[in-house]
Amino acid sequence: MSIPALLLHPYQWLLNSLRVPSRRLHSILHSGRHPAPRAPRAALWKPSGHHCTKWMLLSGGRRNALCIQATLRDHTEGLSDKEQRFVDKLYTGLVSGQRACLAEAITLVESTHSRKKELAQVLLQRVLVHRREQERLNQGKPLTFRVGLSGPPGAGKSTFIEYFGKMLTDRGHRLSVLAVDPSSCTSGGSLLGDKTRMIELSRDMNAYIRPSPTSGTLGGVTRTTNEAILLCEGGGYDVILIETVGVGQSEFAVADMVDMFVLLLPPAGGDELQGIKRGIIEMADLVAITKSDGDLVVPARRIQAEYVSALKLLRRRSGVWRPKVIRISARSGEGVSEMWDTMREFQRVMLASGELSTKRQQQQKVWMWNLIQENILQHFKTHPSIQEQIPLMERKVLSGALSPGLAADLLLKAFRSKH
Ligand SMILES: Nc1nc2c(ncn2[C@@H]2O[C@H](COP(=O)(O)OP(=O)(O)OP(=O)(O)O)[C@@H](O)[C@H]2O)c(=O)[nH]1
């Protein structure tokens, strides 16, 4: 089975790399029951990465843990002394709350250098183990609250985050703000991460603001932001705010990596809100109409009523939570404390029902498959046998000379023949 088949059926590729009969893999993946492993005994004690993956999928909890440890050990043993010291230093600094180490760790996960990417994975795995241990001590409950915050340009996001962030740190929370701005790679700088937007908060020792630059792709948003979230949590930040401009695709990716998704909307008419995609309103667990002060209170009330009616018509995404529409003002502070109460209420209800853990688990799976898809597509597009044919095929499809299906078949065939 070659890579193209994978594009058609991802499990098939996994199956091939593991050399597990198709029916068996299918039953493993869908039943959740793992049959007894048949790998040679030696693989348990000194697994190669390949065997180890097999054991991770096929064996039960204890062997699974053993296998993960072995993979980590394999990775760790592959590090030079210098690399080992570097990862140790970052890890120790990070978990003891040193901001400089957190910043360096995020830079490491953002690196596109292949060796640095490997080091980043070693570090992330250690942070993950640390976090799991902390969660275990907390009766298995998450210690952090991940909130996605989106809104059109000028909605009042930075003014809100500044006020909200100060309120949280005054109450003893540690807040990190990751600003996802997919335009940063084209504009040459991150608009959202610009610290001048949140001057006071960026000086607060209990707040950490960081742009989350991306490779411009949704996969880029997924990877770097997800990994930055893990690192911030490892660094002891208990509220993670992921900010994104609500006019593109990135907010959908962000909605898939947070516990709660909050939409900020200005008290403006339809024209100003045109950039906001209907789909994003469906993702919102909470809609906050901003700038509800002075002359803007009346339009804010009207917009609130409109969104209350609109949300009633939308399909509910949770069995226990009905999205709410509130009004806030970051200028007067009105409604912001109540907003935090509503957010905590959401967290409490979702935790108690088990929906929060299920959501986080599902997000991990989606994340893994997004990365696989992104990687494989990249591999396909940059493969020497394909790269030069793609523009030609695209032209033929555009002119109507070839059907999209046939063009795809031809490209896949060319790709397959070179593997
Ligand atoms: N009256 C009033 N104005 C506000 C409030 N919050 C923000 N503004 C004003 O709205 C404008 C935009 O606010 P920002 O916080 O920069 O909005 P933003 O969503 O971060 O904008 P971008 O950086 O373009 O994405 C500024 O002129 C703020 O002064 C508020 O609560 N009340």
Textual characterization of the structure:
- It comes from Mesocricetus auratus.
- 60% of the residues lie in helices and 10% in strands.
- It is α/β, with parallel strands linked by helices.
- The protein has four domains: 2-76, no CATH class; 79-137, Single alpha-helices involved in coiled-coils or other helix-helix interfaces; 145-356, P-loop containing nucleotide triphosphate hydrolases (Rossmann fold); 376-417, no CATH class.
- It has a seven-stranded parallel sheet with strand order 3-2-4-1-5-6-7, sandwiched between helices.
- Bound molecules: guanosine-5'-triphosphate (GTP).
- The site of guanosine-5'-triphosphate has 17 residues, from helix 10.
Number of strands: 7
State the fourth-level CATH superfamily of the largest domain: P-loop containing nucleotide triphosphate hydrolases
What share of residues is helical?
55-70%
Mean pLDDT across all amino acids? 78
Instruction: List the secondary-structure elements in sequence, H or E.
Output: HHHHHHHHHEHEHHEHEHEHEHEHHHHH
GO cellular component, one term: cytosol
Protein name: Methylmalonic aciduria type A protein, mitochondrial
Pfam family, one: MeaB
Catalytic activity: GTP + H2O = GDP + phosphate + H(+)
In short, what is this structure?
This protein is α/β, with parallel strands linked by helices. The protein has helices spanning 3-8, 10-18, 22-31, 41-45, 49-58, 61-77, 81-95, 99-110, 114-137, 157-170, 184-187, 199-203, 218-234, 250-255, 278-283, 297-313, 336-353, 355-382, 384-387, 389-399, 404-417, and strands at 145-151, 175-180, 207-212, 239-245, 260-265, 286-289, 324-327. Guanosine-5'-triphosphate is lined by residues 151, 153-159, 197, 245, 290-291, 293, 296, 329-331.
